[in-house]
Specification:
Largest sheet: 7 strands, parallel
Order of helices and strands: EHEHEHEHHEHEEHEEEHEEHEEEHH
Strand content: 15-25%
Number of strands: 15
Strand order of the largest sheet: 3-2-1-4-5-6-11
Bound molecules: NADP nicotinamide-adenine-dinucleotide phosphate, ligand F7E
Helix content: 40-55%
Shape: globular
């Protein structure tokens, strides 16, 4: 089996390529040219087994050429501008990457699939997201049947990708699927996503290298799982008999504040909170040291307040469940960051 992964240098790309290699796949990874080949998330030995192909998600002709040359059995489209906060600053490029690029791949697959009856059909996985739901009160837990109400340029872009996948599946019988994945984290998570920002900062504060941590909305609730578990779900989605859309989630939700408390505990801090809104601070109960301050710069023009997924369909149809608990995830990330700053 041959797989093409876009976003190979990202968090999920790194776990997915390891999984597919362990299953005997020949793995091709799309990487945009940076002038220097650098894959900090991928182990050197794993990298040696990958085929890196250079190309940009927004270059239709190059993507077409790559797909025709590689002729993968499966395409996992993970590449995106994936930061929700940044999507408010760069809505147009975000929209192109998560909307237009999905259409590029579907058009290429339509062309390749229809070339001849003997050509093997390419399956397509689209990295869709719980951000589609918008987290409005009363809609939780969110499942495949929950109405979408996107609250950011990122989510609107991903919603267009979602619908293109559904349309091409229904209109052209393409084996195309959306994985509606709730937040998944790991020690390889980008440092500007809240979980990694917290674990890295707390490790630095503990080591005396940072004064305090600045955060935005502490009340936001997320259903946080481990990325290593979720890539297994992506693979299972494409192994199902019929193409379909699936929610992958843990079924548990926590506030940003709870994430800080849990990570703090592992480093010997008993974080207690004082004040409200922008005046809120998080202190270590024992020493009185201020660990967290609020910086409104990290508030978003549109926020998703509560995400809580219902993964029942994935469990029933795919036999998939999130194996790693919230506490295990936080511990894994804190321990990795304590090591990473040494
Ligand atoms: P990530 O770490 O931000 O990785 C994004 C990847 O996309 C990087 O490899 C990046 O390459 C690549 N990329 C961005 N623009 C590109 C372009 N123009 N051409 C080629 N490659 C480009 O994201 P992730 O956390 O692994 O998430 C993977 C996918 O799942 C994303 O589509 C994300 O939106 C979606 N998703 C993530 C979560 C989550 O909680 N992690 C949940 C739901 C959905 P560079 O290294 O060159 O920047
Ligand atoms: O924010 C709040 C922030 O940036 C989580 C992406 O992978 O998951 C991710 O999107 C929450 C938000 O992830 C800070 O306002 C507070 O409510 O870690 P995040 P996200 O926006 O949930 C979804 C499913 C995706 O699809 C995306 O690709 O935390 N928050 N203070 C903060 N967030 C950040 N980044 N930084 C802060 O200082």
């Amino acid at each position: 089996m041959k797989a093409l992964i876009t976003g190979i240098s990202g968090q999920d790309g790194s776990y997915l390529c390891e999984l597919l290699l362990s299953k005997g796949y020949e793995v091709y990874g799309l990487d945009r040219r940076k002038g220097i080949e650098s894959f900090p998330r991928i182990d050197k030995k794993v990298l040696e087994r990958l085929h890196i192909v250079e190309g940009d998600l927004l270059d239709f002709e190059r993507l077409r050429q790559i797909v025709k040359e590689v002729m993968p059995d499966e395409i996992y489209n993970l590449a995106a501008q994936s930061h929700v906060g940044y999507s408010f600053k760069a809505p147009i490029s975000t929209f192109e990457m998560s909307g237009k690029a999905v259409l590029f791949f579907l058009e290429i697959i339509r062309e390749v699939n229809s070339a001849s009856a003997d050509v093997p059909k390419i399956k397509f996985y689209q990295a869709s997201t719980s951000e589609l739901f918008g987290g409005d009160p009363g809609t939780e837990p969110q499942s495949e049947t929950t109405p979408f109400n996107p609250h950011s340029p990122y989510a609107i872009a991903k919603l267009s990708g979602f619908h293109f996948v559904k349309l091409y599946r229904e209109a052209y019988k393409i084996f195309a699927c959306n994985g509606i994945l709730f937040n998944h984290e790991s020690p390889r998570r980008g440092a500007d996503f809240v979980t990694r920002k917290v674990t890295l900062a707390l490790a630095n504060i503990k080591a005396g290298r940072q004064e305090f941590l600045e955060l935005g909305n502490m009340d936001a609730k997320r259903d946080w799982g481990f990325a290593g578990d979720y890539v297994e779900g992506m693979w299972r989605i494409l192994q199902n008999d019929t193409p379909d859309d699936f929610v992958l989630a843990t079924g548990e939700t926590h506030t940003v504040r709870e994430f800080v408390e849990e990570a703090g505990k592992l480093l010997g801090y008993d974080v207690v909170w004082e004040g409200k809104a922008e005046k809120e601070i998080g202190k270590d109960k024992k020493t009185g040291k201020i660990i967290v301050k609020i910086n409104p710069e990290f508030y978003r023009p549109g926020e998703v307040n509560l995400l809580l997924g219902d993964p029942a369909k994935a469990k029933k149809v795919l036999g998939w469940t999130a194996k790693t608990s919230f506490k295990e995830l936080v511990k894994m990330m804190v321990e990795a960051d304590v090591e990473s700053i040494k």
